[in-house]
Write a structure and sequence with these properties.
The structure holds two protein chains of two kinds. Chain A is mostly helical. Chain A folds into two domains: 257 residues, no CATH class; 131 residues. In chain A, 71% of the residues lie in helices and 3% in strands. In chain A, α6 packs antiparallel against α7. Chain A is globular, with a radius of gyration of 21 Å. Chain A starts with a helix and ends with a helix. Chain B is of the alpha+beta class. Chain B has a domain of 296 residues: DD-peptidase/beta-lactamase superfamily (Beta-lactamase). In chain B, strands 4-3-2-8-18-19 form a six-stranded mixed sheet, with no helix packed on it. In chain B, α7 packs antiparallel against α16. Chain B has 16 helices and 23 strands. In chain B, β12 and β13 form a beta hairpin. The chains are: A mainly alpha, B alpha+beta. The interface between A and B is large, with 47 and 34 residues.
Chain lengths: 404, 474
């Protein structure tokens, strides 16, 4: 109890400190960040109060780490809104703040209305149907943004179905694998997952494909306790990777850029090179919030927000962020260990590994450790659909942690 | 269930490794890759940063300003063309060259020095108050008065000259003519690069090749003194023309020097004698001796911050028939050199056989004038022993006293060697002159080449003589 309070107070302090810093970036002292800060703190305090009062048995660190990540994200997005000295409204930060609020609301709603986890394990075909139709939909009515055909645009509102599909795939896999399983069941999951990943590769959403695959392997391993499936999976992955390298041009391009981005630094490799410049100029301690040039990175508020953070907060700040993510994943998997039933356990494992793989693929990508794939950093990157999905998953995770 | 708990723990370990690998990779990236890519031209941060930095000044050894940024942010070079090949230029369109390029990081204040962290609060205040960052000043070893003097005495001739302090390796002057005017680089860039005759971008002092002519006899003399046992009693009868196979090596105006020993042959620059000595020594001995004087070696103008390549003098060729070896001993055929390499050769004679590492960066001071770095002189090579150096020095003194460099006689004792480099048929020869002074305690070594100035070293000698008396009487 005491520890939670301390952590909460530290989060308030960090939030205040970061936003306070933002006031002094512009030529004239800007007081808007303080409004952001105040709203954030009120929102966090209020939701924390409700959690403690009505759902005290859950793992509050899950919630606390996530909201801290959100604050870091909003601060960075606000900072990236300030490109010129005479800026007026923090457009994206304002939107992100809205998404954060909606995300917390969804989190609360899940806590209020979600039934006992075990009850929702029956509808596995519903889940896979939803997931596959979401993925398929983009093939027909999807729009190509940033080189991936994985967006659906309805009026002014656009979202990535693959984000939501991830969640349903986890539900499907958990319900399919939580029963007594035989070979046939496993083959069924293989077929469905194969289709899901196939769609993603066709839509050029390679990052999501990689994450789906990772989630599937981890869940299969936990469900069967059989390491041979992991081996088989990795073999299949290597073959699939090799095949798609030769079949799909866009896969080949990604790999070429990864091997030598400098050759393409003015066209195809522009993004990754700019990202590396940012990280390089950050050094150990970073340039300090507002003192670097992170707005030179394309898509700095989305996929490349990690590079922007590395530029201004340095290696130390970037490592701290990675450790925060690890703590979140750790709390998620800990929830899985203590969960009562098979289904909840698999859902918790699925959600935690989704977060872990996503973080690994994004950060690995923007630092050129692995080939780059356009994916958002959970809770930090700008974006509505990912924010909603992350809070949805977090709500479910919290719900599971209550049942221990 | 127990089994699963174990497996989930394994998954946790797996993710720990994943995340650790990212952090490890980032540390590796920061240590090894970051510095290599930081200043890539496609990194716009570099441009943004340069805009927000007041570039440091370039100063000569006495604090005279060679380049500074004025209040409007424009780069000004008070001496213009005479320093064009030294300071180089900076241009948004055409990039950077010379000292501006080699010491760019210092001028932009990017180099970190030990004392800097004391000033952390100063730079923090600067960035908080939005003040421009101030770069460091680069102090060169160049003496601007000497440089200007030499540049002007070239008048309209093409050529180059280098002055070095033989005891330290400091470059006191490095003139190349014609040169560029860095103040007007944007307007004149195309004109400069299209000038195929004047080649103003070519730094003739270190990047051009000329046959060294008789100046090379210093190397041949050293080889003879070190390799021929009875050199003291060696006498040659010079009749002005030496037949080698079906070709002939002539002396200047086919002058007959009669019976001469090596000392007198050096004094009058007798081709006949030195060609014969060269034949006696052979290609390998001459090459070996030339390499002691840093021919064929990779050499640089060097300090801890920059390495500026000098085109090394060359003594290497495949046609090694008697005629070729004979005229190579008098600095013709495939022998090539530039004023910097000939100055370094002369330094060995002036400095008891030792050649010091040439350098142009005297020191770095910050905008407040505090010293940040000072280059320490270093020995580059032991070319010849003290005795050989003394002997050649005496020959060079004699050359001024009563030999080919009589015109260089002065109140200050000068030691010198003249040279005439035959080049393309039908064109006037290049005039060479190497010297040091005062002969007993050398302060300055100078090597001058004037293109197509005719035989007899006249123009080069005049330039060098003026430069020496100007430098020593300041």
């Amino acid at each position: 109890m005491e520890l939670e309070k301390k952590v909460l107070h530290s989060i308030y302090f960090v939030t205040f400190f970061l936003f306070f810093n933002l006031c002094f970036i512009t030529e004239k002292i800007d007081l808007v960040p303080l409004i952001f800060c105040l709203s954030s703190i009120i929102l966090i305090a209020y939701s924390n109060f409700i959690i403690r009062k009505f759902y005290p048995r859950g793992d509050k660190f899950l919630f606390l780490i996530s909201v801290l990540l959100c604050q870091i994200g909003i601060v960075m997005i606000y900072r990236l809104d300030i490109k010129t000295k005479n800026f007026e409204i923090p457009r994206y930060a304002l939107k992100q703040m809205t998404w954060f609020t909606i995300g917390i609301t969804i989190f609360m709603i899940i806590l209020f209305i979600a039934p006992k986890m075990i009850r929702i394990s029956r509808y596995k075909y519903v889940y896979i149907f939803i997931a596959l139709s979401l993925l398929m939909s983009t093939l027909f009515i999807g729009k190509e943004i940033k080189g991936s055909k994985n967006w659906i645009v309805i009026g002014a509102f656009s979202f990535q179905p693959s984000e939501i599909a991830k969640f349903f795939i986890i539900l499907y896999l958990a319900s399919a694998l939580s029963k007594q399983i035989n070979k046939r069941d496993i083959i069924e999951t293989v077929v469905f997952t194969f289709f899901a990943i196939g769609f993603l590769v066709l839509e050029k959403d390679l990052g999501a494909a990689l994450i789906f695959f990772g989630i599937y392997l981890v869940m299969l391993y936990i469900a069967t306790s059989d390491a041979k499936y992991v081996g088989l999976g990795l073999l299949a992955f290597s073959l699939g990777g090799l095949l798609s390298y030769f079949i799909f041009n866009h896969v080949r391009i990604r790999v070429q850029i990864w091997l030598n981005p400098w050759k393409y630094k003015l066209d195809k490799g522009y993004q990754i090179c700019q990202s590396l410049f940012a990280i390089a100029s950050g050094g150990l301690f970073g340039r300090g919030l507002g003192l670097g040039y992170p707005y030179l990175i394309p898509l700095a508020i989305n996929d490349f927000i990690f590079s922007a953070i590395a530029e201004e907060f340095g290696l130390i700040g970037a490592s701290a962020l990675i450790i925060l993510y690890f703590l979140l994943v750790y709390r998620g998997l800990r929830t899985a260990i203590y969960s009562k039933d098979n289904f909840s356990q698999l859902v918790a494992v699925g959600i935690s590994s989704m977060l872990a793989f996503q973080v690994f693929v994004v950060i690995g990508g923007v630092t050129k450790m692995i080939p780059m794939t356009g994916i958002t950093l959970p809770f930090v990157s700008y974006g509505g659909s990912s924010m909603l999905l992350n809070f949805l998953s977090l709500g479910v995770l919290y719900k599971i942690s209550e049942g221990r | 269930m127990k089994d699963r708990e174990e497996n989930i723990k394994k998954v946790i370990v797996f993710f720990v490794l994943c995340f650790l690998s990212i952090i490890t990779y980032l540390i590796y990236f920061n240590l090894y890759t970051a510095d290599k890519i930081k200043y890539d031209i496609s990194n716009q941060r570099v441009i943004e940063e340069e805009k927000n930095t007041i570039r440091g000044m370039i100063l000569d050894r006495y604090g005279e300003i060679l380049a500074e940024t004025d209040k409007k942010g424009e780069r000004k070079y008070p001496f213009g063309s005479s320093f064009g090949n030294v300071t180089g230029y900076i241009s948004n369109k055409f990039g950077k060259a010379g000292v501006e390029a080699f010491y760019n990081n210092i001028l932009l204040g990017r180099e970190q020095f030990l004392g800097d962290f004391v000033d952390v609060f100063g730079s923090l205040r600067q960035s908080v108050l939005g003040q421009k960052k101030k770069g460091d000043n680069v102090v060169l070893t160049i003496d601007s008065k000497l440089q200007n003097k030499i540049y002007n005495s070239f008048r309209n001739d093409k050529g180059a000259a280098v002055c070095i302090n033989p005891k330290t390796g400091e470059i006191l002057a490095m003139v190349s003519k014609p040169s560029i005017n860095p103040n007007k680089i944007d307007e004149n860039f195309n004109e400069y690069s299209n000038d195929n005759i004047g080649k103003p971008f070519l730094n003739r002092a270190i990047q051009e090749y000329y046959p060294p002519g008789s100046v090379f006899k210093i190397v041949t003399t050293a080889a003879a003194l070190e390799n021929i046992e009875d050199i003291d009693s060696y006498i040659n009868n010079c009749d002005g023309i030496l037949k080698v196979g079906d070709k002939i090596i002539k002396d200047y105006r086919e002058e007959k020097h009669g019976k001469v020993d090596i000392k007198n042959a050096f004094k009058v620059s007798c081709n006949n004698t030195f060609a014969k000595l060269g034949l006696k020594l052979g290609y390998d001995v001459l090459k070996n001796e030339a390499e002691k004087f840093l021919f064929n070696k990779e050499i640089y103008i060097k300090d801890d911050f920059a390495k500026i390549k000098i085109k090394p003098a060359l003594y290497e060729f495949n046609e090694r028939d008697e005629f070729s070896v004979g005229i190579s001993a008098i600095g013709q055929h495939e022998v090539k050199a530039n004023p910097m390499t000939m100055a370094l050769m002369t330094c060995a004679v002036a400095n008891d056989g030792k050649i010091m590492q040439p350098y142009i960066l005297d020191s770095i001071v910050n905008y407040k004038g505090n010293l940040k770095y000072k280059t320490k002189p270093e020995k580059l090579a032991d070319a010849i022993d003290l005795k050989t150096a003394e002997t050649i020095k005496n020959y060079m003194i004699l050359t001024v006293k009563e030999g080919t460099a009589k015109k260089a006689r002065n109140s200050i004792p000068i030691a010198a060697k003249t040279g005439t480099a035959e080049n393309a048929i039908g064109k006037e020869a290049h005039s060479w002159f190497v010297a040091f002074a005062p002969a007993n305690n050398p302060q300055i070594v100078i090597a001058v080449v004037v293109e197509n100035a005719g035989a007899g070293s006249g123009r080069a000698l005049d330039i060098a003589k003026e430069a020496i008396s100007h430098y020593l009487n300041r």
